[in-house]
Amino acid sequence: MISIARKLALLGMFCASEAAAVTVFLDFEDGLLPTAHGWSFEGTDEGLLYSIAGGVLRGDTFSLPGEGGGYYKLPGVYDASKDTVFELRARYIDGSGGLGSAFGVYGPSSYVEIGVQAGQLQIVSEPMPPGSTTVGAATMGGFHTFTLLLPGGTQTMEVKVDGVTVFQGTRRLGVVPNGIGFGDFTAGGDGTWEVDSLFYSNDVPEPATLGIVLIGLCGLSWRMRRLQ
């Protein structure tokens, strides 16, 4: 019979392995741009395109000629084998289409970009012909929560707005280094939007794994009560 100490040790090992997963939360209450929190910036001058007021990050790439822009990225955090969630609390203001206001997840086995547009989302991820699709979504009239769900070990994905599923489909096999990003991806449009906060995690427990943990905790609790 496994001792209580051993059970506690095993539970600790499980929790430690789960803690090794990546969770990222970013807001702007401190008034600092994402680069001050370890994100890199790709594109034109960060200070020209992004600013913070009232704890909200504002991006505006209309001031640039053509379709130039810039975006933030955080490399090395995506693991395609794990269930993953990437969520932004953001407000769409204006855009000229494309990925002027967007966020995405990149990895060796997936590549997904979500462009927030007026009344719709543009989802870029082959093998969806012709490589992207648009779906109607509540993007106007204030802040909304945009969520991208990527089950581990599969090529499926789900997109939600304010908790409501607006798209389910297949994502493409990506070839770029793993990471996450948000901003103006410059693929056919400029944008103005505000981001209140973002959350990313590949520490989403699978139902079966969670069930095993709960069973173990219940058994441990019952055993301790008997000893008392």
Any key phrases for this structure?
disordered N terminus, Jelly Rolls, 2 domains, eight-stranded antiparallel β-sheet, alpha+beta, 42% strand, seven-stranded antiparallel β-sheet, 228 residues
What does this molecule look like?
There is one protein chain. The strands form two sheets. Strands 1, 3, 4, 6, 11, 12, 13 and 15 form an eight-stranded antiparallel beta sheet that branches. A seven-stranded antiparallel beta sheet has the order 2-5-14-7-8-9-10, with no helix packed on it. The protein has helices at 4-19, 46-49, 207-227, and strands at residues 23-27, 40-43, 50-53, 56-60, 70-75, 84-95, 102-107, 110-117, 120-124, 132-136, 144-150, 156-161, 164-170, 179-183, 191-201. With 228 residues, the protein is an alpha+beta fold. Helices cover 18% and strands 42% of the residues. It starts with a helix and ends with a helix. Strand 9 (120-124) and strand 10 (132-136) form a beta hairpin. Mean pLDDT is 78; it is low at 1-19, 207-214 and 220-226. The longest helix has 21 residues, at 207-227. It has three helices and 15 strands. The chain folds into two domains: 1-21 and 206-228, no CATH class; 23-202, Jelly Rolls (Sandwich).
